[in-house]
Amino acid sequence: MPTLNVVVCNTMVGAYTQAGHIEEAHIIFQRMPMVDVVTFNSILAGVVKGGTLDEALTFFSRSPEHDVVSWNSILHAYAQSGHLEEATAIFCLMPEWSCVSWNALLAAVCDFGSIDHAREVFSQMPQRNSVAWNTMIAAVGQKGEDLGQAKHLFDTMPGDRSLVTWAGLIGAFCSNSGPDDAKTALQLAPCWSSSVVSLIAVACVQDGRLHEARRWFEILPERDTLAWKMPMRDSMPWNAMVTAYAQTGHFLRAKETFDGIPHKCLVSWAAMLGGYAQSGRAEEGITLWRRLGQEGIAPNEIAFTSALALCGGAGMIEEAARVFQSMAADHGVRPSREHYSAMVDALARAGHLEEAEELLASMPFPVNPVTTTSILSACNWHRDWTRGERAARGLLEIDSSHSGHYISLARLVL
C-alpha cells in the first residue's frame, strides 16, 4: 500500500468516525505509518460515541500526547457511562478547561448527581453558552424542582431561545404542573418538533388522559415530517410513549406501541424491557431479552438493568449471573452501581444470601441503603437473623439518622 499522508488519513479517519464507521476508521488508523494527536482524537471521539468505556480508555492511554480535545473525550466517556465520581476526577486532572469540558461535567452532574450540585457547577462556569443554559433548564424540570426556577432560567437566558430551550421549559411544565400548562407554553414556541410534542403526549398518559395522548401522538408525522423520515429519530416519540404507558400500568398499550414502531432502535428495546420488568412479566421479558440478542443488537446499561431485574423477579439466578458476567466479558459494559444492586437483589430474593452479601462487599462503589435494604428484607423473609442483623447495622453505618433503620434492627433482635 502506498505511503499515506497523515493529513489525508486524519481527514478520512474523522469522516468515518463521524459517520459511526469505527471499524473502517480503525483499519486506516492501523495502516498509517505515522499518527499524531489529531488521529488519536478522531478515533477516541468515535469510540466514545459508539464504543465502550474500556475501549476509550485504551485509546486514551495509547495517545502520544493529550490536548483539551482528548481530555474532553475521555470526560464524556465517563460521564455518559454514569461514572460521576470518575468524571469529576478527570475534570480536576485536566490541564485546561474549555466550554465543552464544563458542559460535559454539568451534563454528568445533572444526569447522575443532585440539582444542588448542578447549580454549584453552573455558577462556577466562567462562560455559559446555550448548551449550558439548556442543560440546566432541562435538569431543573426533570428533577421535579420548583417550576419557577426553570422559568427564571428561561427568562434570564441571554441570546435566542432554540427549540431545545423551549423543549426544556415545556418538559418542566409537564413534570411539575401537567399537560395543560405545557400546552400553553407550546403555543408560544416558534415551532414544534417530534420531541416537544411527544413530551405533551407522555404528560397526558401520566395524567390518565390516554385518548388525548393518542391524539397528540398521531399528529407527530404531520408536524415533523423530516424527523419521521430519519430511522433513528422517528423511534424517539414511540419510545417515549412505550415508557409512559409502562410506567402508568398500561402494559398492553405499551406493547401495542412497541410492536408498531417502524424502526426499533436500542432505546425502543430497553423501554419495552423496562416495561416488562416494571409489570412483573418476567418470562415474557426474558423472551424479549433473548430476541434482542438474536437481532444482533448490543444491549446498553439500561437494558442490562432491566434484564437483571427480570431474572431476579423470576428467580432465574443462573440466567442473571450469565447476564451480569456477559456485560464486561462480551459487551465491554462496565457494571454500574445499579447493575450490582440488581444482581444483589436477585440473589437475595432467591435465598442466596451468602452470595448476595459477598457481592455487596465486593462492589467497587460505596454501599447505598437500597442495596443493603434488599438483603435485609430477604433475611427477614428467609429467617436468617444473624445476616439480617449485620445488614441492619450496615444501614445504621450508612445513615444513622434514619429512624426506619432502627426499627428494622429492633425487629431482628427482639
TrEMBL record:
- Repeat PPR: residue ranges? 5-39, 67-101, 265-299
Is the keyword Cell membrane in the record?
no
Q: Which InterPro entries match?
A: PPR_At4g14850-like_plant, PPR_rpt, TPR-like_helical_dom_sf
Care to name a GO molecular-function term for this sequence? RNA binding
Q: Which UniProt keywords apply?
A: Repeat
Key word Repeat present in the record?
Answer: yes
Its BP terms in the Gene Ontology are: RNA modification
Q: Which NCBIfam families match?
A: PPR
**Name of the featured protein:** Pentacotripeptide-repeat region of PRORP domain-containing protein
Source species, please?
A: Selaginella moellendorffii (Spikemoss)
